[in-house]
Amino acid sequence: MHDMIEKFYREHRDSYVYRISRKAGGLENAEDIVQEAFCRLLKYQTFFEDKGEEALHPYFSRVLNRALQDFRTEDTRQGMALAEYGMDEEASNELMGYQKRILEEIKEDITSRKQEHKNILYMFFYLGYPPRDIVKALDVNYHMAKNVINRFKHEMREKYGNPEAAEIG
Fold this sequence. Notes:
This protein is an all-alpha fold.
């Protein structure tokens, strides 16, 4: 599997870099994002290793889009002055610490689930897959996948009292 990903990287890296360079703000950023996406692909290859090479393109496109989205979100956050948030540095650090703790708790909650549910939640929240693609990739029942996702969202809303808490960045 690792060799197949390396081959895929060598053959398609430049086309993916070119494809996202405008959205990323230049070739240098695009190269970083594509590299990050391939690192994620290697880290989570167990989600598609039994699917073969034909599964790499759609899976990698999702991972790449998520990496680009993460880059843009982080870039926006770093580019904003604290004054735009209407808070001083100490308050900003406190808020960021609180958000980080919540995200860690949510990650722990996902990892504590049984493997099938963990895979569904990971693909939905972290990789941005819609349920119809999760069903194809994991070979699970559509209604079961939707129920797992909706139940988890509901639990997070109950726990944190905020619909946005169910969205994992």
